[in-house]
Specification:
Shape: elongated
Number of strands: 15
Helix content: 10-25%
Distance between the termini: 59 Å
Radius of gyration: 22 Å
Length: 302
């Protein structure tokens, strides 16, 4: 277990303990530091403190950084479609039907199992043993680009861009009905459906801010091919927002019609473009995932 102690000097006093620690130990996220403080692994003048403690000149801060726990999830030799990779980040094209991280009922065959094998131990540990390197996720039946962080510094930087809504994330989708406007913006908070806790819904009372921009790419007789750009990243955001304006996604078994004329496995939604500032060299990188075969074929049929 790594330990360090530090004496607060002039210019550092009056700063919150958790904020100061996140700047002093940049490889750890602020939420993880707050967890360590709560568990008593941070002492100020030999006594535990709260995260919002205001530091004073000559305070002695001691921090025991817990050793990284080896993942209990097994690495599996599952082929990955790599869109971009360097020593800090990995962008993959997730296939349809693959769960991102292990959960009850899905402890193998996940994206995490695959990247553990591919990266051979070089993954961020900030999100714990079940989600190493995972900063964001896409649904099991959604395809396309997803970024994985290989170290904690990269994780913190990319998570910061997610929090600041500065990641460029655009999706391609096919929705029911004819969308009349060429483009539009849906600003509606999303939370748990109060009638069915397994679903998400527009929830003005308990929902979190959610913003989706959309534009029409092509209209068909009974469907519309659209592009959606996310400002926020709520669970099922595009699926819920498009349903809320009367245009559920084709194939969506939760929010859309149960019967369609096509044999589909889940919603027709594809994470097409992912743009981000590289966490180390600060260059802008934009990666595009080609439409999967089933999606392209469906467009041809329509």
């Amino acid at each position: 277990m790594e330990q360090f102690s530090y004496q607060i000097g002039i210019g550092e006093d009056e700063e919150r303990l958790d904020k100061w620690l996140s700047g002093t130990v940049p490889t750890l996220s602020r939420s993880y530091i707050q967890k360590c403080i709560k568990e008593g692994q941070v002492l100020v003048n030999d006594s535990p403190c709260k995260a919002n403690y205001r530091l004073r000149v000559d305070d002695e801060v001691a921090f025991q950084i817990p050793e990284a726990v080896e993942p209990s999830v097994e690495a599996e030799n599952i082929p990955l479609s790599v869109l971009y990779e360097d020593e800090d980040v990995l962008v993959v094209d997730k296939p349809k039907g693959m769960v991102v991280h292990p959960a009850p009922g899905h402890y193998s065959g996940t994206l995490v199992n695959a990247v553990l094998y591919h990266c051979k131990g070089h993954l961020s540990g900030i999100n714990g043993v079940l989600r190493p390197g995972i900063v964001h996720r896409i649904d099991r039946d959604t395809t396309g680009s997803l970024i994985v962080c290989k170290n904690d510094l990269s994780h913190r930087e990319i998570a910061g861009q997610l929090g600041a809504h500065s990641l460029n994330r655009s999706y391609r989708a096919i929705v029911h009905g004819t969308v009349k406007e060429e483009e539009g913006t849906i600003c509606a908070p999303i939370g748990r459906d109060e009638k069915d806790r397994k679903r998400m819904a527009v929830n003005e009372k308990n929902g979190k801010e959610a913003v989706t921009h959309y534009r029409v790419l092509q209209r068909f007789r009974d469907f519309t091919y659209i592009e959606c750009r996310l400002e926020t990243g709520r669970t099922h955001q595009i699926r819920v927002h498009m349903t809320s304006i009367g245009h559920p996604l084709l194939g969506d078994e939760i929010y859309g019609p149960r019967k369609t004329a096509f044999r589909l496995e889940g919603q027709t939604l594809h994470a097409y473009c992912l743009g981000f500032i590289h966490p180390v060299n600060r260059e802008y990188i934009e990666v595009k995932a080609p439409l999967p075969a089933y999606f392209s074929h469906l467009l041809t049929v329509l």
